[in-house]
Write a structure and sequence with these properties.
The protein is an alpha/beta fold. The protein has helices at about 25-35, 45-75, 90-100, 105-115, 145-180, 190-210, 235-245, 275-285, 300-305, 325-335, 340-350, 355-375, 390-400, and strands spanning about 1-5, 15, 20, 80-85, 125-130, 140-145, 215-220, 225, 230-235, 250-260, 265-275, 315-325. Helices cover about 50% and strands about 15% of the residues. An eight-stranded mixed beta sheet has the order 1-10-11-12-9-6-5-4, sandwiched between helices. The chain has a two-stranded parallel ribbon with strand order 2-7. Strands 3-8 form a two-stranded parallel sheet.
């Protein structure tokens, strides 16, 4: 899959950090994450994270619904209905109903899917909504990225940064050896065992900098725009028209464009959206949304007060990703050569650096979200330190404790 950036951004030069621009309290969440990566926990962190995830999750969910209505209304005539889905199989079933007889390749993929649907990751969990026209054909889909996927993305992004930093440090160590031997760097012959030892030493030095809190942190390198995302399905002409009309919308700003070429073809636009505070606060009360959060450790009486107390310090805008796709390209991305889950697996397997620090980042981010979604609003310590080494069982055990499940589950 080749990416073509139409409006490239300058990457950050310091540490890649978790900055989730779909959240209206991304600054606060950034500061907490920054401290946690350096092993520093404050007593109110658990409660603060819980409030952020309740508030910002509701804001981005409601804003996605408003944006879906706006965007789909531009290119599709008539009313459309929405259905909540929880597994990718529901999306793929709707896609197959909508794409029959579109093209020979599409028919081939649909037949293959219906012959062996379990081969297509049907049980992949998703928190999303499909949009269907009056003929129950799929015209759009929106979702909020699941915490596990955000943690994986943080791992991947920070791995690239750490790999470069460790490489630079290992190179410095090699230069020091060449200087001691009195020979030019290009004439230094380093055995593989020595190179591996220098790389490990450099990694340990980086980990120590986290422990000391001496690494300079910056949000630019690991900005994640697509926690909230919408996919609009249409023909090339209508999708091009939608792009043109977006430029005249006063509440939307296109801040980045990206075109995917190869097996996966689509256009991605990062939108900065102004959200309606009054509407969202009203929706929170009208839908009794507070009932969804009764298991988050915050008293019911406090949740019933409304969203306003939680919106203190919220940004007036948030970012979402808009994917523009034709129906054949979407079928290819869900059932064909560029199936989404295969791309996720490839991203996991093709990382240039698979050391313990990026994995610890993933564990820690996953734990941060687990704290905010669990019945616990306070924790005594951080179970993961970036300079330590852990198995996945470790983080699983600590997440179980958040939900008061048995910490040790053995056969006897």
């Amino acid at each position: 899959m080749e990416k073509v950036f139409e409006t490239p951004q300058n990457p950050g030069v310091r540490i890649q950090q978790v900055y989730l621009t779909s959240f209206v309290h991304c600054e606060d969440l950034f500061k907490i994450t920054q401290r946690w990566l350096c092993g520093r926990l404050e007593p109110t962190d658990g409660l603060h994270i819980t409030r952020i995830l309740i508030c910002d999750g509701f804001v981005v969910g409601e804003t996605l619904e408003v944006m879906a209505d706006l965007l789909l209304g531009i290119i599709h005539e008539g009313r459309f209905q929405k259905e909540n889905i929880h597994f990718k199989g529901e999306l793929r079933d709707a896609l197959c109903r909508s794409a029959e007889n579109v093209a020979p390749r599409v028919n081939e993929l649909i037949l293959y899917y219906r012959t062996n649907p379990d081969f297509f990751y049907r049980e992949t969990p998703v928190s999303g909504v499909i949009c269907l026209d009056k003929g129950r054909r799929l015209i759009g889909f929106y979702r909020i990225k699941r915490p596990r996927r955000i943690a994986e993305k943080a791992n991947r992004y920070i791995a690239n940064w750490i790999f470069r930093m460790v490489q630079d440090r290992a190179h410095e160590m090699a230069e020091e050896r060449a200087s001691k031997l009195g020979i030019p760097m290009e004439r230094l012959l380093t055995p593989k065992e020595e190179m591996a030892r220098e790389f490990t030493t450099a990694e340990r030095i980086i980990a120590e900098k986290f422990k000391e809190g001496t690494i300079e942190l910056d949000r630019t390198g690991l900005t994640i725009h697509d926690v909230g995302g919408i996919k609009v399905v249409g023909d090339d002409e209508s999708l091009s028209d939608l792009q043109r009309r977006l430029s005249s919308c006063s509440t939307i700003k296109v801040i980045e464009k990206e075109r995917y070429l190869g097996n996966y073809q689509a256009k991605s636009l990062i939108l900065e959206v102004s959200w309606d505070r009054e509407l969202i606060c009203r929706r929170y009360q009208e839908t009794q949304a507070w009932k969804k959060y009764l298991n988050r450790g915050i008293p019911e009486k406090e949740l019933k007060k409304g969203l306003e107390p939680l919106l203190v310090g919220a940004k007036p805008t948030l970012n979402i990703e808009l994917i523009l796709s034709t129906l054949p390209d979407m079928v290819e991305s869900e059932l064909g050569n560029s199936i989404h889950e295969e791309r996720i697996i490839a991203q996991r397997n093709n990382k240039v650096y698979k050391g313990y620090i990026p994995m610890n980042v993933e564990f820690l981010i996953e734990y941060l979200f687990a704290v905010g979604m669990s019945p616990r609003v306070s924790i005594d310590s951080l179970p993961i330190k970036l300079w330590g080494r852990y198995l996945p069982d470790t983080i699983s055990s600590h997440i179980r404790k958040l939900y008061r499940m048995p910490e040790y589950a053995g056969f006897y």
